[in-house]
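queue> holo job accepted (flavin mononucleotide)
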Amino acid sequence: MASLRTFLDSLPEEEILRFKNPMEMDYTPTALALELEKEQKFPMLWFEKPNGFDMPVVANIFAHRDRIARIAGAPDAAGFNQAWLRAENNPIAPRIVDSGPVQEVVFTGDEVDVETLPISRHFQADAGRYIGSGILMCKDPDTGVRNLSFQRLQMKGRDRFGASLHSRGHIWDHLIRSQNKGKNLEVAVVIGAHPAIYLAAAAKVAMEVDELDIAGGLLGKPIDLVKCRTIDMEVPASAEIVIEGELLANATEDEGPYGEYTGYSTYRSTRNIFMVKAVTRRREPIYLDIIPGNSSEHLLLGRCAKEAHVFERLREVVPDVKALNYPKSGTHFHAYISLKKRVEGQARHALMLLFGLDSYLKLAIAVDEDIDIYNEEDILFALATRFQADTDMFVVPKVFCNRLDPSSVEGMSAKLGIDATIPQDFDAERIALPPEALERARLALAELFPEK
Ligand SMILES: Cc1cc2nc3c(=O)[nH]c(=O)nc-3n(C[C@H](O)[C@H](O)[C@H](O)COP(=O)(O)O)c2cc1C
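queue> job finished
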């Protein structure tokens, strides 16, 4: 049965940084991941003895594109899009089984105490200890289709969390419709499952799609589910920890601030309340944390599936689009595309489409195929030499956007599209070297530095 454990077993030891001594959980995983990032290092972090808690914590699984690609069944980052789209187009529905390790221990009523979980503080201004790595599973109140997504949960007591559904995705829609029926929304929070389920939960797919079907597609087999003990929901049988409960209808209270993907601490919150009915878990569970803020892990998890999905939609209309990158520097607000331009105006067409497909975007830059869109110096070179501001860009004011952008105004932002592709009457030739000279240089360097 695929689980977090089968994935951890498959990881090469050199990709894991283990801490065998007792470690403070407040801030430490975040500080370590961000310090390592500065050196371009993205190991998974494994804390065997968190101070004051009786279970290990793993974090930073999703910090590198190659590791995410392997979770999706591709050998490396270059193969991710194809692997993702194969799963999206060949979903495998989950199946219900009678029992599973996630219910080896069950706490209900007065026995519930989420404070015993190694939920950490991540950033200095955070309002408290937060779960940012919980997959919230709920059901469409009208159709019953399951939905998986992430929403930050501020621990407020043994059985109480504050929640922010600010991306106003499907769970927000479900809650509003439940409220209209006068009902709370039942939600199961899954902590620690096979990372393929995390990738699927982070994806924005149609409301009629159960993300677990895509996770099954990624794994090539159905996900086994067990029925929750206190709510009408099914959860991965091999998960580590599940918190069963309800998002309250028509009730709000203060929540936040929290260090968000934008790189800012934000008070913006839908201020929802999540009340816990049960905690079920393995006898010796592993707690999975996700490094929040604009860490590599948070941003990559949020955008890998989106890139694949949006790229495919773009190519359906503009087949000459070659690649799409959401750079880390732009949090989720910038994107670069490369294309083999055949006619003038084609880049603008692709840019408009891109803005239409993703409301978070504020800046999109189109470049030619010879520009490496994963190298921002190359993007700036294209801007420096192929772009004129008076003719090659357009601005669309006041468009719906993501409210967490601190510069947005009343939930709207301007969209800036830049066409940095070579104009038609361009007569400059890019400098180049003869291939034999490059080969000579490579051989000479290989002789001087054989270890490379
Ligand atoms: C690690 C992580 C944390 C997230 N935290 C939140 C959050 O606190 N609130 C929120 O509204 N969206 C959050 N999101 C975004 C949604 O979970 C995400 O957009 C998801 O795809 C929405 O699912 P849906 O399309 O099924 O509604 C987070 C995403 C990730 C990857």
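queue> The pocket of flavin mononucleotide is lined by residues 132, 147, 149-152, 164-167, 169-171, 202-204, 290, 298, 301-302 (CB under 6 Å).
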